Amino acid sequence: MSTPTATESVSAPVPDAIPLPVTSVTCLEDRAHIERTTTLHLEPGVQRLRLGPVGALAVDRSLHAELTGEQGEFTVLDVRVVRAWTPRGPEAPTDEDSPLRRRAHALGEELRTLEQRRDRLETRLDVLGRLATDLLREIGEGTGYGESEPERWSAELDRLDTERDMYEEELGTVRARMAGLSDELNETHNALLHTEQEPPELTAHVELTVRAPAAGPAVLRLSHLTPCALWRPAYRATLQGGELALQTDAMVWQRTGEDWSGVRLTLSTARSSLATAPPRLVEDRLTLRDRSTAERRTVDVEVREEKVSDVGPATVPGLPGVDDGGEVRVLHAPGPASVPGDGHGHRVPLTGSTSAAHSEYVCAPELSPLVTQVVRFTNTAGHALLAGPVELVRDSGFTGRGTLDFTAPGAPAELAFGSSDSHRVLRETEESRDTAGLTQRTVITRTVRLHLSRFSAPGESDDRVITLRERIPVSEVTGVEVRLRKDACSPAPDSVDADGIARWDVSLPPGGRRTVTLVYEVSASGKVTGL
Question: For every residue of 63-116, which 3-state class applies, written as one string?
């Protein structure tokens, strides 16, 4: 049950709170569901307990408490979060604090060190004073009994005087330095008082009112939502030979006001705050009109770029969202996890899998002259791979970062492991335009030459297959035709898909060179304009 929150000032003494640690956390996309568990020793009757502290950001309306025990049925009468403003305790400054505050802390530390040194010097001087008193008493008693040792007494007195003078001089220096530090520290505190004011800290406790039928222990489970917590998937892919080892981790950020230490961590893609209202329906009116005479005589076309695939590592501009394929996914940390409440990202291992990998060297010269190693594998992790950044590791070590798209269990996936420096690709294009005299048909002939070369290290003897991709325009109107001239291509493409992507699998020996030529024609009738 939940009730409105209450805020009180720290004036009257309050009883000691019963610890209420965090034992389980379900981290959502933009918040967290926290569960706390503790054992209470209850007395018979109605009683009010104070538990905590807890995070002050706890959502009051989500507060729920449940008591279970062997002594009968326990009834939760009321549970609420009580917040209070308390002054902050002395803490060491961090790099985020101002230079003035760091200077005040350094002066205070030096002043405390000098105070300890002063106390030690005063203790030594006190001991030396008692020694001088004992020595003078010994001199008086020895003189009265007729025992005279003037040389020893003189040497002892001289040594005591020398040490007392040395310690008194050092004590004077320390006291003078302390006076200067005290004045400087007072000035610094005054400057801080006028420029920076340390705000009080908002703390929170749980007040629980229960009715117990008999005395005995009871287990309390208290749960609530809290903001300022989120998670995102992250991966680490290690390519060794023909195998790919994929480590699935969770990057968790939280600044809820308390640390999560040794908790059962669950990661969920549920979006409890997502609105479920249907979209609004708006009027969409269509009208027809007759074409003009000029529009009947000509067909206006335009060339547009349409992205159908990409080659190479994709950039990660920022924090990606959680892509779960439209279905809520739940992942569990295999062991107790600890996430400090410092607002920084902390990596929590989840699962690991190994699958067979097939490497392919791919190049799209129109987009980039680099030859990229693309690794294809099957998702054998036992769960869906959510979209997220991937750290790429090969035998030589860390090679870069990429992104992994959403992949269902058992589905194929691919990762780009960066470019190969031992390959070079040069692209050259030529275009010629011709118009037939009778039909007024325009024919555009484009020739694309791709020059490949491979620079191999000593000892390499295996051929390497490079997959080249070059696009051919695809016509959507009957007035424009695109024809691949296979007789002029050298060699002809191994395949051309429905999107007009021509593909060659070119085998290059160590130090080898090849030239691939692609020729196609774009022809349009006399009515077509825009080419």
Answer: CEEEEECCCCCCEEEEEEEEEEEECCCCCCCCCCCCHHHHHHHHHHHHHHHHHH
Mode of pairing for the β-strands spanning 229-240 and 388-394? parallel
Assess whether the previous peptide bond of 491 is cis (omega < 30° from 0). Answer: yes
Q: What 8-state DSSP symbol labels residue 382?
A: S
What is the torsional sign of CA 94, 96, 101, 102? positive
216-226 vs 32-42, strand pairing mode = antiparallel
CA distance 335 to 235: 18
Residue whose C-alpha is closest to residue 114's, from 184, 63, 52: 184
What is the DSSP secondary-structure string of 287-349? Answer: ---PPPHHHHH-EE-----------SPPP--S------TTS--EEE-SS-EEE-SSSS-EEEE
Q: What is the pLDDT of residues 473-522, one digit of tens each?
A: 888 777 788 889 998 998 999 999 888 899 999 999 988 999 999 999 98
Residue 86 main-chain phi, psi, to 5 deg: -125, 145
Give the helix/strand (H/E) hosting 167: helix 150-195
Q: Which domains does the chain have, with CATH numbers?
A: 6-88+200-226 (no CATH), 99-194 (1.10.287), 233-258+308-419 (no CATH), 423-529 (no CATH)
Evaluate the CA torsion angle 383, 388, 394, 396 in order and state its sign: negative
Q: What is the pTM of this model?
A: 0.68
Per the DSSP assignment, residues forming a β-bridge with 475 are none
Structure tokens that stand for 184 in this block: 């400087």
Query: Residue length, the chain?
Result: 531
Each residue of 138-169: b (16+ CB within 10 Å) or e?
Answer: ebeeeeeeeeeeeeebeebeeeeeeebeebee
Residues facing residue 71 across a β-bridge? none
Positions of the chain with pLDDT under 50: 1-13, 310-319
DSSP string, 391-458: EEEETTEEEEEEEE--B-TT-EEEEEEEE-TTEEEEEEEEEEEEE-TTT--EEEEEEEEEEEEE---T
What is the arrangement of strands in the sheet containing 501-508, beginning at the earlier edge strand?
412-419, 372-378, 358-363, 464-471, 501-508, 495-496
> Residue 239's beta-bridge partner residues?
244
515 residue type, one letter: T
Cα 117 from Cα 104, distance rounded (Å): 20
Q: Are the C-beta atoms of residues 518 and 502 closer than 8 Å to each other?
A: yes
Bridge partners of residue 459, in order along the sequence: none
Q: Residue 226 burial by CB count (10 A; 0-12/13-18/19+): exposed, middle or buried? A: buried
Tens digit of each residue's pLDDT (9 = 90 or more) over 129-147: 888 888 888 888 877 777 7
